[in-house]
Amino acid sequence: MTDPFAPLARALAERGVRYVLIGVSGANFYAVPPASRFVTDDYALFLPPDPDNLVRAWGACEEVGGELWLTDEPLDRPRARWLAERIIERRAVTRVTGAHDLKVDLTLVMKGFEFEAVWRQRRLFLVESIEVPTARLLHIVASKQAAGRLKDQLFLATHQDALEQLLKKPKLD
Question: In CATH, what class is 6-168?
Fold first, then answer.
């Protein structure tokens, strides 16, 4: 079965988009064996506050048939640099929906972290032979703790033992 994220990961790589996978989808790369993965229905991509990079990310999403949303409305057109600058000023999230129930958040915020720091320490994982830059598990967990959202608190409490075991494995983080 094809990973629903693979076509987008390929398009992002081909366009030279800088991002790191974060959130539960990022934590899943550290879960071994795959049967111990955490349940999530979306992917969260942390992007730098770079309008040209964001425009390339939007283009990659459109290339694979993704629909782009800003809250509950389609993202305006033209999807050019000036729009990306407004999105970055507001640190707004662009939501992408696509085939095979693909849901992706393009976010400019990772609570407690700046993009460049996470980028420097990223790990690369393969999805159908495509390198996916992924935040360190420690960064993902620390960000979820700092965010303080109910859904993050529930995730951390529910999976505390598994996360602690994963964080103890030096090869994985």
Answer: alpha beta
